[in-house]
Amino acid sequence: MENQELKAALKAKDAEIEELKRQLRGKNPLPAIRKSTEDELPSVNSEPTLDNEEIARYSRQLILPELGISGQVKLKNSRVLIIGCGGLGCPAAIYLAAAGIGCIGLVDFDEVELSNLHRQIELRLHGYCIKACVSNLFIRLNSRASCIPYHLALTSENAYQLIEKYDIVLDATDNVATRYLLNDACILTGKPLVSGSALRFEGQLTVYNHNGGPCYRCLYPKPPPPETVTNCSDGGVVGVVPGIIGGLQALEAIKLACGLPPSFSQSLLLFDAFSTFRTIKLRPKQRNCVICGESPSITKLIDYEQFCGAKATDKDAGLNVLGSKERISVQEYAEILQKKSDHMLIDVRQAVEMDICQLPAPAIIFVVCRRGNDSQLAVQELQKRLNGIQLKDIRGGLHAWAKHIDNNFPVY
Ligand SMILES: Nc1ncnc2c1ncn2[C@@H]1O[C@H](COP(=O)(O)OP(=O)(O)OP(=O)(O)O)[C@@H](O)[C@H]1O
């Protein structure tokens, strides 16, 4: 495809996406969104009883001896904060609201994209663009629950003030910097942290900072090198997997709120869609942990993007390991294409991604050897590594060249 055609196709796609986003916004009015963490929360009902409507509404869980009226009242008096209204946060929020949690805070800076909807189905149902607005769904689902949307990013500046107001925190985010921030903020405020993650066909769940158990830093004192971290937008995810893990995060939060022991406070649940659930015991709380140990060196929130060497979002390519001479912009590359300058393009994505789209392949690589045997093997090998590049073996190699094209060519 020529560059002009490519530009036109991209423009048409942009217009299509804008139209779909417009439709997504729907006709529903936006809820009152908080852009700051300072405002007081609505007071949760501290009466030790339920009214008749609540008894009818929650009757199927009320008759469980582990819960009973007293458990349901505890749920009603609890405040749960969910960070991230994506694949994990949406299902967790729905079940927490339906179960009768008195106040749920929903934090997300992001807006809905079409690629979110295979797993963030609640957002699609309600037709909002700002993710934290999923809270409005609860007004219909359970008018007794107060749901507070915060359209902002959780940062070192606001985390303490926000988390302090809630009893239990759910980590439903997708980046390492926010995981460390949440861990430290929960330790400093003394809140349990229900942490979930999902990628491809697998998910994980655990509860940090509860009942003498370890914190995230006890297990991972150092952040992973940024280039080794994968997320859903690079690695992919089957929508049901975050649905399962988000649901389990809600269950752990319900147990915590009722005073029942959470199942995963000192262990890690591993889910693999191709095999089963497995639980592994976690290493205990570390006495020398820098935040929850005996003499902590971290006593306030730090700069987590600097600590992790990566952004607190997976929206841009956080990695920056090459110098400016070793990189070019897409505009510069488009110019190279337009001028048909000599070059070769190596697309390092997986083969499955090549079926979705490709830049115009500018070159064919010809492979030659002495007699045409090794060159065939080389083509086979290169085909596995160089997606989208046309590779051709020169049949018969240099021997054939000497015989048919250039009689003076040295043969050995
Ligand atoms: N520091 C933060 N503060 C608030 N929200 C956050 C923060 N970090 C991550 N999030 C939110 O957590 C959510 C994680 O959702 P999910 O893992 O489903 O990924 P996504 O960003 O929605 O989708 P994709 O990765 O496919 O683009 C996102 O909506 C993201 O905006």
Bound molecules: adenosine-5'-triphosphate
Q: Tell me the distance between the termini.
A: 43 Å
Count of DSSP helices? 17
The overall pLDDT average reads 86
Kindly report the oligomeric state of this protein: single chain
Choose one word for the global shape: elongated
How would you explain this protein's 3D organization?
With 412 residues, the chain is an alpha/beta fold. The protein folds into two domains: 38-308, NAD(P)-binding Rossmann-like Domain (Rossmann fold), CATH 3.40.50.720; 343-405, 3-Layer(aba) Sandwich (Oxidized Rhodanese, domain 1). Helices cover 36% and strands 13% of the residues. The protein is built from 17 helices and ten strands. Strands 3-2-1-4-5-6-7-8 form an eight-stranded mixed β-sheet, with helices on both faces. Helix 5 packs parallel to helix 12. The model has no long low-confidence stretch (mean pLDDT 86). The structure holds adenosine-5'-triphosphate (ATP). Adenosine-5'-triphosphate is lined by residues 83-87, 107-110, 115-116, 131, 153-154, 173-175, 178, 231-233, 312-314. In the N-terminal section; belongs to the HesA/MoeB/ThiF family. UBA4 subfamily. The active site is at 232 (glycyl thioester intermediate), 369 (cysteine persulfide intermediate). One of its GO terms (molecular function) is adenylyltransferase activity. This is Adenylyltransferase and sulfurtransferase MOCS3 homolog.
